[in-house]
Write a structure and sequence with these properties.
Helix content is 64%, strand content 2%. It has 43 helices and 6 strands. Strands 1-2 form a two-stranded antiparallel sheet. It has a two-stranded antiparallel sheet with strand order 3-4. Strands 5-6 form a two-stranded antiparallel ribbon. It is flat and about 120 Å long. It is found in: Chromosome; Nucleus. This is Integrator complex subunit 8.
């Protein structure tokens, strides 16, 4: 065997061999393959996919010799395809749950209509006019299956559906056609709903067993229709369905349609309840393992519970023993005191689901908003009970509870403390429960604006028992310092009952809170509430929320809508806080975002670590600008180095982070790192480090002998290349000027969209670095202006080359504007630097700006004096 053949064999043998998918025409050529295929463990295609393929092929229109489209031909091929579709459904024992899940309404309608034809249902006769007891068993069963499907489809179509996302134009046309066909079928089914109900109710009077077509009986039909019909009539073919099985299923389906009709006619709920009761009774008699009765027991239990509540009837014994029964009884009897007591007890037993408790609260809140003001206190207390339950389960406190804490009464806080005390099981208090309760009490203290109420909580025994000494100390100190002034970020939410029942108003209120809040936990719970009301991108609520374009695609690729909104908003708010130097809130928002993305995205985790680094760099630089000249902590310097040396494939990096890290290193004279310790491969690959290294090397050798001119010349060549004619002089949105390079530099320095003034735009404060850059631009300015009489002076100007090989290639306007702004920026940091003042005086004198106004009198005296001396000379 050759080496190539051996390699091919090794590759093919290294992975499992997947059998090819069977095609529909294979079964048409050899019908015996169908049963063999269906008996497989995981048949591919699946049974419902086969049904679709068979019916699709059987219903294809034909084209005649005149090229005219004709209806599908009634030939042997198409009849065989339809029969095979029925045989697949028979293999599934005509389980409507499976068929409804896998087939669209038009396909299932076609299948069942074919089933009616094969089962010898008299054509042209309404089903309601048929006497099922006199029909052959398989014929009667086909009628029942069709009408069961009809009312089930009406019920299912009443449920809300997700809107399909728009696709390609051709696909949209097909989707629209199918939608129109579905609506037409539903319209017919709704018109015939009464007849279908009558047919099914009549079947409940038939006590004999029924038979349904199987693969064998359908084969007999294909072989000899007359014989097969006689055999099915004599009940020797087909699958036997007991009367109890059928009646259980029919009761369940009738209960569903009556329950759906109860929305418009509440009296019908009684009929629904009766059918569900009989379905429950029959279900207990039947073998639970039997697959013929396809009743969803969990849904049946839900229907039964709902009907009992809606019909306001219940078994007194059941009410005494089940929590649901007790709550329903209290609601019917308006015994709200007992209802609240039940909720408090449930905080210990945790027997009622969270959703059920909140549904009770919402129901009473709706009544209150309809005008029943007597329920106001009840709603307050239920809100408190549910908040305590949420806290004990580690859940997020609802917006309604936070609204309640804005201006609560003393009685409300007293009741809250009582519920907290009673909700902790005295005999089985776990450390986890006590800790969660402590966190809840801390939250309440922090949210209360009324200091007297906050002290009321802090003096309670639970506060003393559950909180640690350090926590109590911090909270007490906060309460002492609290003032009546409310921060914009803590702007009062609307009153607890100011939000009307209208969902749109609720959403607008919550969106307003979302815009104002800077608390990550509060933002998260608001988003949870909003996503419970509507599915739409809430990161678009505020057009001023901006996330760097480098990160947008990564964030919007998050599949979970809530997580996507939360990550986007936390980052946008954090960036805004940094821009206004609110570093405390920025740190909270970014830390929360980091914790969130760490769970699912290593890429976003690194993005947030980078943004946290940038925030800390800016925070430290802001402190330095205000006079705090402490050196940055070693950990921060180490992290900046780590960022500059970082090489992670496919990680979105913001240019500004790299720029400011280099500025940070220059500001704090980390010249040793930039000149000697940074890896050479990093210098060659990272343009910001390359530029930083050249600036640091030049500064390090000043003032020095001629050797310093080697690094100075390299820096000079880089700046000249950036200021070449191919660069464009452009003013940014904030009024600053940058030189944007439009082509790749031959040295690889600052490729595309890099600015020569990035070093002072983003907080460069080191005087020697600024002096060096001013000196460089002064020399470049003097060369391109070529005016010996009016040359501008600066320190260390002699280290730069005195001529340019290609003078015409430099953009003169860009050099002039950059020099002016650079000097202005330097003087804004130190208005008394004599060298910078002399340079600015030369600039103003050269451009005939002799009348100058300055707010700083010292600067004015020095500058005017210097200009006067130039005139005198």
């Amino acid at each position: 065997m050759s080496a190539e053949a051996a390699d091919r064999e090794a590759v093919s043998g290294s992975r499992p061999c997947t059998p090819p998918q069977a095609s529909w025409f294979e079964f048409l050529l050899d019908p015996s393959l169908l049963e063999q295929h269906l008996r497989g463990l995981h048949p591919d295609p699946s049974p419902v996919q086969l049904i679709v393929q068979f019916l699709e092929q059987a219903s294809k229109p034909s084209v005649n010799e005149q090229n005219q489209v004709q209806p599908p031909a009634d030939n042997r091929r198409n009849r065989t395809l339809k029969l095979m579709a029925l045989k697949v459904a028979a293999h599934l024992t005509w389980d409507l749950n499976l068929l409804e899940k896998g087939l669209t309404i038009p396909v299932l309608n076609m299948l069942l209509n074919e089933f009616l034809c094969v089962s010898r249902v008299p054509p042209g006769v309404k089903h309601v006019d048929l006497d099922l007891s006199t029909l052959p068993p398989t014929t009667a069963m086909a009628v029942l299956i069709y009408n069961r499907w009809a009312i089930r489809t009406i019920v299912l179509s009443s449920f809300p559906e997700k809107q399909t996302k728009p696709g390609p134009h051709q696909l949209n046309i097909l989707v629209q056609q199918e939608k129109e066909l579905t609506e037409n079928i539903l319209s017919v089914l709704r018109e015939q709903a009464t007849d279908s109900i009558t047919v099914l109710e009549g079947a409940l009077n038939i006590k004999k067993d029924f038979y349904i077509h199987t693969l064998r009986s359908l084969d007999l039909l294909a072989a000899d229709p007359s014989t097969a019909n006689g055999e099915t009539e004599s009940s020797t073919a087909g699958l036997r369905i007991s009367a109890d099985h059928l009646h259980c299923q029919v009761h369940y389906d009738l209960g569903g349609i009556y329950f759906q009709q109860g929305c418009s006619d509440p009296s019908v709920y009684e009929k629904a309840k009766e059918h569900f009761r009989k379905a429950r009774e029959l279900l207990t008699k039947l073998d639970s393992s039997a697959s013929l009765c396809c009743v969803d027991e969990q849904r049946l239990a839900g229907y039964w519970s709902a009907c009992k509540t809606l019909t306001e009837t219940s078994d007194p014994g059941e009410s005494q023993h089940t929590p649901y029964g007790q709550i329903s009884c209290f609601m019917r009897n308006h015994d709200y005191g007992a209802l609240i007591e039940a909720f408090i007890r449930d905080n210990v037993t945790l027997s009622l689901p969270h959703s059920f408790r909140h549904s009770i609260q919402l129901e009473l809140l709706h009544k209150l908003q309809q005008g029943d003001r007597a329920l106001e206190e009840v709603c307050h207390k239920l809100c408190v009970c549910n908040a305590v339950r949420d806290a004990l389960e580690g859940g997020v406190l609802g917006v309604s509870f936070h609204q309640l804490l804005i201006k609560p009464s003393k009685n409300t806080i007293s009741f809250l403390l009582e519920v907290c005390t009673r909700s902790l099981d005295k005999e089985h208090r776990s450390e986890t429960s006590k800790r969660k309760m402590a966190i809840f009490i801390k939250t309440v203290c922090n949210r209360l604006e009324d200091v007297s109420l906050a002290f009321m909580v802090s003096s309670h025994k639970l506060f003393m028992e559950l909180l640690q000494d350090e926590e109590k100390k911090i909270l007490m100190e906060q309460m002492r310092k609290s003032s009546a002034t409310v921060n914009l970020s803590a702007k009062p939410l609307p009153s607890f009952y100011d939000i009307p029942a209208s969902t749109s108003v609720n959403i607008s209120q919550l969106e307003q809170q979302l815009i104002l809040s800077l608390d990550p936990r509060h933002i998260r719970q608001i988003l949870i509430e909003l996503h419970g009301m509507a599915e739409r991108p809430f990161w678009r609520v505020n057009s001023k929320w901006e996330v760097p374009v480098d990160y947008v695609n990564v964030i919007l690729a998050i599949k979970d809508n809530l997580t996507r909104d939360l990550v986007y908003i936390l980052m946008a708010k954090g960036l805004h806080c940094i821009s206004i130097k609110d570093f405390a809130h920025a740190r909270q928002l970014f830390t929360a975002c980091l914790e969130l993305v760490t769970e699912f995205s290593p890429k976003l985790r690194q993005v947030m670590l980078n943004e946290l680094l940038l925030m800390e760099v800016r925070g430290h630089e802001a402190g330095a600008a205000e006079g705090n000249m402490e050196r940055p902590p070693p950990d921060l310097v180490s992290r900046v180095r780590g960022y500059l040396e970082m090489r992670i494939h496919d990680l979105p990096l913001r240019q500004i982070v790299g720029e400011e890290c280099v500025v940070f290193m220059l500001n704090w004279r980390e010249n040793e790192y930039l000149t000697l310790q940074v890896p050479q491969s990093l210098v060659n690959s990272n343009p910001y480090i390359k530029l930083g290294q050249l600036i640091a090397s030049t500064c390090k050798e000043l003032p020095g002998p001629k050797e310093s001119r080697r690094t100075a010349k390299e820096l000079w060549e880089v700046v000249v290349q950036i200021c070449s004619v191919s660069s464009q002089h452009k003013r940014s949105s904030d009024g600053r000027v940058s030189l944007l390079k439009q082509r790749e530099s031959s040295m690889g320095i600052l490729p595309r969209a890099s600015s020569i003034n990035l070093q002072y735009d983003f907080g460069l404060q080191e005087p020697l670095v600024l002096t060096t850059l001013i000196s460089l631009f002064v020399r470049l300015h003097n060369i391109v202006r070529d005016d010996i009489v009016n040359e501008v002076t600066a320190e260390h100007i002699s280290i730069w080359p005195s001529s340019l090989a290609n003078l015409q290639s430099v953009d003169v306007e860009a050099v002039v504007v950059t020099l002016k702004e650079l000097v202005n920026y330097a003087l804004s940091l130190n208005p008394n630097n004599q060298s910078w003042l002399c340079t600015q005086a030369d600039i103003y004198f050269e451009y005939h700006q002799k009348l100058i106004y300055f707010t700083n009198s010292i600067q004015k005296v020095k500058l005017v004096y210097y200009i006067h001396s130039l005139h005198t000379d």
